[in-house]
Amino acid sequence: MTARSVLITGGNRGIGYALAEHFLSLGDKVAVTSRSGTGGPDGALTVAADVTDSASMDAAFAEAEEKNGPIEVLVANAGITDDQLLLRMSDDSFENVLGTNLTGAFRSVKRAIKGMMRKKKGRIILISSVVGLYGSPGQVNYAASKSGLVGMARSITRELGSRGITANVIAPGYIDTEMTQQLSDDLKKEYQKAIPAGRFAQPEEVAKVAAFLASDDAAYISGAVIPVDGGLGMGH
Q1: I want to staple 46 with a disulfide (CB 3.0 to 4.6 A). Which of 40, 61, 102, 218 is the partner?
Q2: What Pfam families does the annotation carry (predicted)?
């Protein structure tokens, strides 16, 4: 397989880091973005970028394309949380989360499709969350941003499907990352009781689904939402 040019936003830790490592193991040329410009895995090109700033994203894409070639696989993974009950949630909290998680994905996709349209082939993978489909108290902003990615992927599919470009969504559940490792043992057990699989997923399990969606085997899959949640959301 010819090495592809892959760009992963927020690839300096957690799921993004695992995504980068897995695509590297497949022989791809991988660029990851982080706000600091550091933190990606060995072998990846790490570029500084803020998904809330269009000029910053343009510069990051230009650097990645100069070194790795036009982006063929985009994984929009960068995201933040700012949890608060609805009555106490500020406008800034809502807008900042949507600005990173949803508008940031829009900026990434808009920049990536230029090269994909010229090549008449591309893979767009948006990292959502079970929360975007299932809902969660205190996460109105986060759930709205992650749910919005579904509509984005399906609209992209209708616009660009005839050009050989696919757009799909992965909706992870509880993943064994630094964030979940900080939970107390009692809270971990409580969460795991709600998961039919009875455990948290490893980040690599998300990465392998992304690799499939990026492959030629998934050329006829677009606008799909793939849950990686151990049955927690039951696809909703």
Answers
A1: 40
A2: adh_short_C2
What is the span of the domain harbouring residue 95? 5-226
Task: From the candidates 17, 134, 142, 174, give the one annotated as an active-site residue.
Answer: 142
pLDDT in tens, 124-137: 999 999 999 999 99
User: Across the strands, what pairs with 225?
Assistant: 169
Residue 137 lies in a domain: yes
When divided into structural domains, the chain yields a total of 1
220 is catalytic: no
In this structure, the number of other CB atoms found within 10 A of the CB of residue 3 comes to: 15
Check whether 92 has a pLDDT greater than 90. Answer: yes
Helix (H, G, I), strand (E, B) or coil at 47: strand
Average pLDDT over residues 77-106: 97
45: domain CATH number? 3.40.50.720
